[in-house]
Specification:
Layout lengths: L5 H10 L3 E3 L11 E3 L1 H20 L4 E3 L9 H5 L2 H4 L1 E6 L6 E3 L19 E4 L2 E4 L9 E4 L4 H6 L1 H8 L5 E10 L14 E11 L4 H19 L6 E5 L11 E9 L2 E12 L1 H10 L5 E3 L4 E3 L2 E8 H12 E4 L10 E4 L10 E5 L6 H14 L4 E3 L5 H11 L3 E5 L1 H4 L7 E6 L5 E5 L1
Parallel strand pairs: 3-9, 19-20, 19-21
Antiparallel strand pairs: 1-2, 4-5, 4-6, 7-8, 9-10, 10-16, 11-12, 12-13, 13-16, 14-15, 17-18, 21-22, 22-23
The protein binds adenosine-5'-triphosphate.
Adenosine-5'-triphosphate binds next to strand 10, strand 13, strand 16 and helix 9.
C-alpha cells in the first residue's frame, strides 16, 4: 500500500465495520478503537489460529488465562513499578510530548522548538481496589500478559505434568499508558498480546531462541505477509530491556516505516528468580537426569494481536480506481488469507424469487452445520453483491440460479465464484 492510501484504508475499515474510533457518540477517545462486526470476526480468527499453531498442534505447550489485575507485588517483582518507563520530553512551546528514544533530532522537537529535560514516565495504569482510594488499595492493570504466566509457572508445571522444555501460552488484553500512541491501532493504550513463555534448560536457551525466531517469522509469512516487507531486528546489547539476554524483533514495513510486530526475547531466569525472591516460593524444578534442581530459562515470543491484524489487513487491501478490469468502476478487494476472513462464504440467490430462496436457505443451513460462517444476501444486483463480499475478503460466493433448481444437468449445483480470480465454476451442493 502506498503511504498516501493509508487514510483511504482507515476510511474503508470504518465503512465496512472492521475497526472504527471508539466512543464516537461522545466525541471519541483519542487513540482508542473498537472492532466492528467484521473486525471482531477477523481478530477472533487470528487469535484462534495462533492458539491452534502454538497450543493445539503441539504436545509441549499448554494454555492459561490469568487475571488482568494481579497482586501489585507482581509488578514490583517484575521491575515494572520501577523500570517500565519511557523517557518523556516536552516541547516547551507547544507542550506536545514525545518519547525521547523515538526522536531523530534530540536537540529540538519536530516543530523546531526547545525540549524539556527527559523524565521517566511510568507506563503502568493505576487503579484502586475497593472503596478507599489510598496507597493501600493501589493496583495495576497488567502491562503485559506474561507475568500472569510466570506466577503460575509452578502450578502449571505440576498440574499439566509437563517436563522442561515446555511452554505456557496466553492471549489477552494489556494496558500501557503510552506517551505517543498513534498510527491507528499500531500503538494504543489498550491492546491484546499473544504471548508464549517457553521454559528450557539454560544450556539449550540459545538454540530454542533461534528456533522461535525462525518459527514465528514463518508464521507471519504463512498468513500472507510478504518476505520483502518483513525483517528481523536484533537489539544491540546496549539497548536490551533489563530482563533480556537477547532480543530479536520481527518488523513489518508499514506505510509509515518499519515497526515491531513481535519481539522474541531470551529472558534468562530473570522473571522466575524475581518472583522467587519477592514471593518466597521456590521456582526451581527437578531435573530427573542430573538429579539436580535448576531454574529454567525462558524464551518468549511476544506478539500483538492488533498489530498483526493491522499488518495483514494493510498487506491484503487493494484499491483499483478503475476496477480489476482496468475499465470499470472503482473496486476494493481484500485478499486476506481465507483462514482469517470474517466469512467463509456468501450464499446469494441470483434473484429474490422462489424456488431459489428455498434452495439458498438449504445451502446456508448445510454450510452452517459444517461449521462455516456464512453471509446470506438476497438484495441488489449480483455484481454489486460480489463486490461487497470482495471488499471484506469473503473468499467464495455461492450463487443459486435457475439451473440449480430446474430439471437438467445442473440441477443441484450452484456457481462458486472465487474472490481473487473472479472465476466461476459449477459445483454440486
Ligand atoms: P514498542 O517498542 O513498539 O513500544 P515493545 O517492545 O514495548 O513495543 P513488547 O513489550 O515487546 O513491545 O510487547 C510485545 C508486543 O505487544 C509488541 O511486539 C506489539 O506487537 C505489542 N504491543 C506492545 N505495545 C503495544 C501498543 N501500545 N499497542 C499495540 N500493540 C502493542
Amino acid at each position: 500500500m502506498a503511504s498516501d492510501q493509508f487514510e483511504q484504508f482507515v476510511a474503508w475499515a470504518k465503512r465496512r465495520g472492521v475497526i472504527w474510533p471508539s466512543s464516537e457518540i461522545y466525541g471519541g477517545l483519542a487513540n482508542s478503537y473498537d472492532y466492528g462486526p467484521i473486525g471482531v470476526e477477523m481478530k477472533n480468527r487470528l487469535k484462534a489460529h495462533w492458539w491452534r499453531t502454538m497450543v493445539h498442534e503441539r504436545d509441549d505447550i499448554v494454555g492459561l488465562d490469568s487475571a488482568i489485575i494481579l497482586n501489585p507485588k507482581v509488578w514490583e517483582a517484575s521491575g515494572h513499578t520501577e523500570n517500565f518507563a519511557d523517557p518523556l520530553v516536552e516541547d516547551v512551546v507547544t507542550h506536545k510530548r514525545y518519547r525521547q528514544d523515538q526522536l531523530t533530532d534530540l536537540t529540538k522537537s519536530p516543530d523546531g522548538n526547545p525540549l524539556s529535560e527527559p523524565r521517566s514516565f511510568n507506563l503502568l495504569f493505576k487503579t484502586f481496589i475497593g472503596a478507599a482510594e489510598d496507597s493501600q488499595s493501589v493496583a495495576y492493570l497488567r502491562g503485559e500478559t506474561c507475568q500472569g504466566i510466570f506466577i503460575n509457572f509452578k502450578q502449571v508445571h505440576e498440574i499439566s505434568r509437563q517436563k522442561i522444555p515446555f511452554g505456557i501460552a496466553q492471549i489477552g488484553k494489556a494496558f500501557r499508558n503510552e506517551i505517543t500512541p498513534g498510527n491507528f491501532t499500531f500503538r494504543t493504550r489498550e491492546f491484546e498480546q499473544m504471548e508464549l513463555e517457553f521454559f528450557v534448560q539454560p544450556a539449550d536457551a540459545a538454540e530454542w531462541f533461534e528456533h522461535w525466531v525462525a518459527s514465528r517469522l514463518a508464521w507471519y509469512v504463512d498468513l500472507g505477509l510478504s518476505q520483502e516487507r518483513l525483517r528481523l531486528f536484533k537489539h544491540p546489547k546496549s539497548q536490551l530491556a533489563h530482563y533480556s539476554k537477547g532480543t530479536t524483533d520481527i518488523e513489518y514495513q508499514f506505510p509509515w516505516g518499519w515497526g515491531e510486530l513481535e519481539g522474541i526475547a531470551n529472558r534468562g531466569d530473570y522473571d522466575l528468580i524475581q518472583h522467587q525472591k519477592f514471593s518466597g516460593k521456590d521456582m526451581s524444578v527437578f531435573d530427573e537426569e542430573t538429579k539436580e534442581k535448576f531454574t529454567p530459562w525462558v524464551i518468549e515470543p511476544s506478539g500483538g494481536v492488533d498489530r498483526a491484524l493491522l499488518a495483514l489487513l494493510i498487506e491484503a487491501w487493494q484499491f483499483h480506481p478503475k476496477g480489476r478490469s482496468g475499465e470499470g468502476e472503482e473496486e476494493t478487494v481484500l485478499g486476506l488469507n481465507a483462514k482469517l476472513a470474517a466469512y467463509d462464504a456468501a450464499v446469494l440467490p441470483l434473484i429474490k424469487k422462489e424456488p431459489l430462496l428455498k434452495k439458498a436457505a438449504e445451502l446456508v443451513k448445510k454450510l452452517r452445520a459444517d461449521g462455516q460462517h456464512v453471509f446470506y444476501d438476497e438484495s441488489g444486483s449480483i455484481g454489486r453483491r460480489y463486490r461487497r463480499m470482495d471488499e471484506i475478503g469473503t473468499p467464495i460466493c455461492y450463487t443459486v440460479d435457475f439451473e440449480s433448481v430446474e430439471d437438467g444437468p445442473n440441477k443441484g449445483t450452484v456457481t462458486a465464484r472465487d474472490r481473487d480470480t473472479m472465476e466461476q465454476k459449477r459445483v454440486t451442493i
